[in-house]
Amino acid sequence: MASALRAFIVSASVGLAACGAWAGGPEDSLTEALRARDPVIRQLIDDNPGIEEGWQEPFWREALLDAPRLPGSPWRIHDLARPQPPRVAPAACPRPRGLRLAASDWTGENLALWSQAGGELVPSGHTANRIATRESFGDVELSLEFRMPDPPVGVFQQRGNSGIFFQQRYEVQILDSYRNPTYPDGQMGALYGQVPPRANASRPPGEWQCLAIRYRAARFAGDGTLIAAPRASVILNGITLQDDEAFLGPTAFAAIGPWRAHPERLPIVLQDHGDAGGRIRFRNIRVRELAAR
Fold this sequence. Notes:
Jelly Rolls; alpha+beta; globular
């Protein structure tokens, strides 16, 4: 496994140098530089040797090292050299507003894989699946409470992975980010693969957390030209993680999708990533339509 990590780190010199984060040097120096960049990255490597085996796969190396550069940024999508969001203490949850969604307000081919009892929605965790609201929304405020599995299972992106997709294609990431380093633009509250959260305000696994998202929908002209990019403000546990930040395009793993015209009003999608550690419990999901801009 040590040789696999060494191979990963040697290959990483190309990606780090390309984004101006590393100028090259001997393997051992690069190893120490990568570990020294941030204590939580060092902890991830040191405390989870199994991740070295996973990172042998070309899938991860290509995605994390050769992903496109973010427009107007020195960083690549999912750049591991990017600084981790600073940890901050959670605050009080704001009072939720809007219409509470019941289990009957959701639909999907694999809806049966979600248990619906006691006012909670819980995915099976056995396979990736998504459910969607029966109603369509444009400009909307969505709030919910969620609880990560305790004890936590997995690390990196395989720990409590979920997400909310507005207009079926623009994702705000949900992840167990409590002492779980990963690429910053995949942390809890990120505009996935595009805009990292300003801070890490995650509570420990097993505690209920509150999330509120104010979303402004993408709009297109009659000829399909984008006239307003989608934007989102994200508040986790009373802490602002995103403040009216714009999406750069549809979200995707290791890529940014091209703009393609679509209806302004579309369902909201709730994701189950299907990981062993992904049995996240959701409750008190509310939506409130916003006045048009």
